[in-house]
Amino acid sequence: MKLILAIINFDDANAVTHALTKKGFSSTKLATTGGFLMAGNVTILVGVDEETMFKMTEALGLGMGCMDGTCGAVAGACILAGMKRSTGNLEKPDSKAESYKLSRAILGGFEKANGTAICRELKGIETGKVIKSCDDCIKEAAALAEQVLFS
């Protein structure tokens, strides 16, 4: 069993927990505070089995897993690609090519818009010039996930 922690906006909490329950996932909702989303937060704890976790992370294997400092928002969008496309076949993964194709589309869209998907470059660590804030990276990665996976 694996544990997923999701920090979401308070206003989205009921819809998320309802969707999780509809898909057969048990979850625990905790009221939390902090600056992550700069608003009222809810932390949702979800336990998932190994196959589901594999499906969620399969798309990270090519490129994302070995790229230095890839933006977490982009990585999260690619996790959704695995959930969308993966067959969850642990013994003989037969859906990796399709999952990778979706990941490449998300990553490519992000890089086209920003010139990079590397966190340190987005944050201007070496140049002193911030390309995009974390909040804006999250918004853009979510929009790309919606476009690539659900359009």
Q: What is the H/E string?
A: EHEEHHHHH
Question: What would you report as the Rg, rounded to the nearest angstrom?
Answer: 16 Å
The whole-number mean of residue pLDDT values reads 81
**Biggest sheet layout:** 3 strands, antiparallel
Structure class:
alpha+beta
Physical arrangement of strands within the biggest beta sheet: 1-3-2
What is the overall shape? Answer: globular
Verbal overview:
The chain has 151 residues and is α+β, with helices and mostly antiparallel strands. It is built from 6 helices and 3 strands; from the N terminus they run βαββααααα. The protein has a 3-stranded antiparallel sheet. Helix 4 packs across helix 6 (134-150). The longest helix has 19 residues, at 96-114. The chain is globular, with a radius of gyration of 16 Å.
List the helices and strands and how they pair.
Layout (H helix, E strand, L loop, with lengths): L1 E8 L3 H10 L4 E6 L8 E8 L1 H8 L14 H14 L10 H19 L4 H4 L11 H17 L1
Helix pairs in contact: 2-3, 3-4, 3-6, 4-6
Provide a quick synopsis of the model:
This protein is 48% helix and 15% strand. It contains 6 helices and 3 strands, in the order E-H-E-E-H-H-H-H-H.
Keywords, separated by commas or semicolons:
151 residues, alpha+beta, 6 helices, 48% helix, globular
